[in-house]
Design a protein that fits this description.
The protein has 10 helices and 11 strands. The chain is α/β, with parallel strands linked by helices. The chain has a single domain, classed as Rossmann fold, CATH 3.40.50. Strand 10, helix 9 and strand 11 form a beta-alpha-beta unit. Helix 2 packs antiparallel against helix 3, helix 3 packs across helix 4 and helix 9 packs parallel to helix 10.
């Protein structure tokens, strides 16, 4: 009996090693989780160390490029990812990856011109892309020059279909970066907005409760098709949303509608990381 158990364990170990050998991106994630992560029902929580996040992002994309000719990264809006973008603009990170094989997309956009400081594209461009060795044709910002935002949403969906294939049921991005709003919104999917309930379109207009009110956003079916989502969250104003998400109770926030099958990493600032750690200690997370 003991001999049989040992043989089974050895076989399982060999199978696991083979899987890790065949999926180098999985090795990157497992190493990150084992060394730095806390596991929760909502995903894996990590301290928001920007250099660690930049290292992991570059390693993950590089691993994907050993398996396929190009890879795709969805950028988050808002101010939170600016530090990450500034790091990626440095020579150190520019030299660690063949960025000419990376395609960049956006999860949402404020409906303002790209040169407007409120634009998500503008922040990424000024902090990173203006210095990056990424071909212009690999950068896919959401258009905001149409008179009708719905036309802009359909144009971006057409661009996604051109990249991922017209017959693709949904685009599958290699990695999606998302922020988290004070109200629990993700991308520009806000509580109570009809965009949150969209089930067929890939990109739709949405309305934000704060200016600029008009937005474009990827929809939940697109986000839930991604194999990996990294939430980048900082700011004490997010505390209530984080408490709701990680309390273990039923949660109606948009961020809670990311499907459990998606590999979710929550990069939380120190104060928010402490909130989740306290909830775990109290036994309220699962």
């Amino acid at each position: 009996m003991e001999t049989q158990r040992a043989e089974n364990a050895d076989e399982q170990a060999q199978q696991l090693l083979q899987v890790l050998e065949e999926t180098p991106d999985l090795r990157v994630i497992l190493r990150l989780i084992i060394r730095h992560g806390q596991r929760h029902a909502r995903g894996t929580v990590l301290p928001l160390d920007w250099q660690l996040a930049a290292d992991a992002l570059v390693e993950l994309l590089d691993a994907r490029l050993t398996q396929q000719p190009t890879c795709s990264l969805v950028l988050s809006g808002g101010k939170t990812p600016e530090t990450l973008y500034l790091l990626l603009a440095t020579r150190h990170y520019q030299s660690r990856l063949d960025w000419s094989r990376v395609h960049l997309f956006w999860g949402d956009e404020r409906y303002v011109p790209h040169e407007d400081p409120q634009s998500n594209y503008y922040l990424a461009y000024t902090a990173w892309l203006s210095k990056a060795q990424i071909p212009r044709e690999n950068i896919h910002p959401m258009p905001t020059h149409y008179a009708d935002p719905d036309d802009a949403a359909r144009a971006y969906e057409a661009e996604l279909r051109a990249h991922f294939g017209a017959e693709a049921p949904v685009p599958v991005f290699d990695l999606v970066l998302l922020g988290l709003g004070d109200d629990g919104h993700i991308a520009s999917l806000f509580p109570g907005d009809p965009a949150l309930e969209e089930t067929t379109r890939w990109v739709v207009p949405s309305r934000a409760p704060v200016a600029p009110h008009q937005r474009l956003t990827l929809t939940l079916p697109v986000l839930n098709a991604a194999p990996r989502i990294w939430f980048l969250v900082s700011g004490d104003a997010k505390r209530a949303a984080i408490e709701q998400l990680f309390s273990g109770a039923e949660c109606a926030l948009p961020a809670a509608r990311i499907h459990p099958s998606v590999e979710r990493l929550w990069w939380l600032s120190d104060s928010l990381y402490s909130v989740v750690s306290t909830l775990k200690t109290q036994g309220t997370t699962q």
